[in-house]
Design brief:
Belongs to the ABC transporter superfamily. This protein is of the alpha/beta class. It has helices spanning 42-49, 79-82, 88-93, 108-120, 136-148, 166-183, 194-200, 217-220, 224-229, and strands at 2-13, 16-27, 31-35, 57-62, 71-74, 154-158, 186-190, 203-207, 211-216. The longest helix has 18 residues, at 166-183. It binds adenosine-5'-triphosphate.
Length: 233
């Protein structure tokens, strides 16, 4: 079942098109990596998927069962976010904010879901720690737990391993893979790490101002685009 379909979509800033002719779809349970060089339009597309940016042309259709407040999102971390003065539990619980509507407080269900994700990510021991005192890898686990509080269908991750060391990076990739395979949550991940992208993802979308490849990972590695981007490996 399609979760979202991107049809002939283009995006522009102040009338200047930065990415055009996007045609791809993501089904329930898929794992898609979006790759491409700096400035190729990856983050712009993510803004489009999150409904934060309207396409200049074309459309992004969400499945009727997928509302925009049901997408879990892990943004690119900024320095300000790294310094956020809240406890780990509070940060995770804030993933339920989009579900609150006009309710001014968290429900019992919100708190239960936050607790479950704390355990799922193996960070119960960090529960009362201040978020800004954590390591980069621990912070990303907290943000992943937070994103999971918002969804049972689709997680969108924008460079989740940026700045992490190789061991912590692989741990996080394995955790994301497990969430995909065991919980059936679809993943859309922007990544600069094309080798890990082809290791874990089922589908690859390669951007270069437009879509230069979309399809199965097994086809991508055999394509001239994939072969070249992987450094001829
Ligand atoms: N707010 C903005 N206003 C004007 N142009 C922008 C804006 N944001 C991005 N752009 C331009 O749009 C193009 C695509 O940028 P985008 O950030 O989507 O690329 P990216 O593939 O995510 O890059 P990176 O890998 O460096 O994060 C670039 O040319 C960029 O300069």
């Amino acid at each position: 079942m399609s979760l979202l379909i991107c049809k002939d979509a283009s995006f522009a800033y102040e009338g200047h098109t930065v990415i055009s002719d996007l045609n791809f779809s993501v089904n329930s349970g898929d794992y898609l990596c979006i790759v491409g060089e700096n400035g190729s339009g990856k983050s712009t597309l993510i803004k489009g998927l999150l409904r934060l940016k309207v396409p200049q042309r074309g459309s992004i259709l969400m499945d009727e069962g997928l509302k925009s407040n049901e997408i879990g999102y892990l943004p690119q971390q900024t320095i300000v976010q790294k310094d956020f003065p809240a406890s780990v539990y509070e940060v995770i619980l804030s993933g339920r904010l989009s579900k609150m509507g006009i309710r001014p407080f968290y429900s019992k269900l919100d708190k239960t879901i936050a607790e479950e994700n704390l355990v799922l990510l193996g960070i119960e021991h960090l529960r009362n720690k201040c978020y800004r005192e954590l390591s980069g890898g621990q912070q990303q686990r907290v943000l992943l737990a937070r994103a999971l509080c918002a969804t049972q269908k689709l997680l969108i991750l924008d460079e989740p391993v940026a700045g992490l060391d190789p061991i912590v990076t692989q741990d996080l990739y394995k955790q994301i893979f497990k969430i995909n395979r065991e919980m059936g949550i679809a993943i859309i991940m922007v990544s600069h790490d094309v080798h890990s992208a082809v290791k874990y993802a089922d589908l690859i979308l390669h951007l270069k101002g437009q879509q230069i490849f979309f399809g199965k990972t097994s086809d991508y590695v055999k394509s001239s685009v994939g072969y070249g981007f992987l450094g001829g490996e």
